[in-house]
Amino acid sequence: MLEYKETSIFCHQLVEYSGKKFLLDASTMKPKLYYWGLPTEVITVEMMGVDKKVEIPGTPINKINGGTAAIIVQPFVGAVYSLLKNRFSEYAISQQIFLKIVLFVVAMLISFVLFRFSIEMARKKVKNLFPTARKRYRVTFKPIPERKQIFDAHLLNVVLLACLAMYLFNNNGQEEIFLVIGGILTAFLLTFEFGKVPVLLGAKTGNLRLDSVEEIVIEKSN
Question: In the chain, what are the domain boundaries?
Answer without folding.
Answer: 3-215
